[in-house]
Amino acid sequence: MSEKPENPWQKDPTPFIEHGESLETKPELLTDFITPNDHFFVCNETYTPPIDLTGYTLKIGGDGVNKPIELSYEAVLKLPSHTVISYLECAGNLRQRYEDILNGQLPEDDEFGSLRWGIGGVGNAVWTGVSVRTLLELAGLNPDAIVINAKGLDADSAEGGVSRPMPIDKALDPDTILAYHMNGDKLPPDHGYPFRLIVPGWIGTNSVKWVGEIVAATEEIYVRRNTEHYVFIGPEWEPDGNVLGELITTQNIKSTLALAWNAELQAGKQIIKGNGRSPHAPIKKVEWSDDGGHSWQEARLIPPIMKYAWTLFEFEWNPEAGNHTLMTRATDEDGNTQPMEHPFNLEGYLFNMVFPHPVTVKSD
Ligand SMILES: Nc1nc2c(c(=O)[nH]1)N[C@H]1C(S)=C(S)[C@@H](COP(=O)(O)O)O[C@H]1N2
Ligand SMILES: [Mo]
Predict the structure, then answer these.
(1) According to the model, what pLDDT value does residue 94 have?
(2) Residue 185 in contact with residue 125, Cβ under 8 Å?
(3) Do 240 and 265 share a domain, yes or no?
(4) N or C end of the chain: which has fewer CB within 10 A?
């Protein structure tokens, strides 16, 4: 269906920090509630396949459905649509911040764990598509189905298409969609054209791009992304059957500043912006500190404040010239808050502890 392109992504890389096959958004650009498509980060295992619709059909099959079906692109667009506003974040986002603190403990040559995201492996978008539930019901979902697996058409990945299974409960949540629009536009190639999963609240890897097939099954499905990768591996976690540690499903609560790492600012009063995000519940507050966490003040939250989307915050800061650090700490309506430490895991996933963001302030 596709030939290997020259570049791993198709978009203009100017707004990004390049990491091999993937693109991290420059954090100073993440000031808006909705991240524009051309500023949205890209996490690719291999490269963005140039897919055209000639010969394309979406297949729904497996022993978890009673009447396997194939649908054209147009047929999927005619089904009842469902829209979610959700942030999407790589489980490895902030890995470089984690490594800063661990100081040399994360492997440099791990196939997945070596991608050193700063703070911009995240974005927030409006996604429209069809609830996966609608598709499974059309194919006669078997009540014994326990898992689904969507397969990507990135044929050169190690398994001939990236996939990451998901338990049937999450697949049947109406907010789990097969998306075809991103912020009102046709899904861009780098973000999964023609169809991708969006699994709100779950780590980015479940939001499989370039979906060619959805399989429902009555027995567990094991692939690399639910056995050796996207798993907490380390002294705190026991291997469990095929899984090398504890499977990671949902994201965790975080907050980051819309500032470059080592940003240069002018002395004097100014507004500092950022966002807080939690997969569990709407954000309740974001606090900030410029004295290493001795004292905290509350930032202003900027509506909308809703589950699955990130929440923008801002605060006024009046620094003097010199080197400073800013810390932020988000808390959600369920009482989850960012911890002050993060237990070691080999591939450096889900780093969410409060950390210092360095800035240099110049005098006028
Ligand atoms: N088919 C396919 N789907 C994929 C990936 C991939 O490499 N191939 N990367 C996953 C990972 S690890 C993440 S974090 C998200 C990133 O989505 P984005 O590139 O649209 O930001 O896509 C997921 N879906
Ligand atoms: Mo990712």
Answers:
(1) 97
(2) no
(3) no
(4) C
- The CATH number linked to 263 is 2.60.40.650
Using DSSP's 3-state secondary structure scheme, residue 145 falls into coil
Q: Residue 2 has what pLDDT?
A: 63
CA angle (233, 112, 100) in 5-degree steps:
75
* Residue 160: band (very low, low, confident or very high) from pLDDT cuts 50, 70, 90: confident
CA neighbours closer than 13 Å in the CB half-sphere of residue 4: 5
Where a domain ends, among 184, 212, 247?
247
CA–CA distance from 292 to each of 6, 287, 320, 328 (Å)? Answer: 45, 13, 16, 10
Total structural domains within the chain? 2
Domain endpoint, select from 227, 247, 267:
247
> Cα(174)–Cα(164) distance, rounded to whole angstroms?
19
Question: From the CA of 232, how far away is ligand 1's center (Å)?
Answer: 19
Q: Take residue 211 and report the two structure tokens written for it.
A: 């979906």
pLDDT tens digits, one per residue of 252-273: 999 999 999 999 999 999 999 9
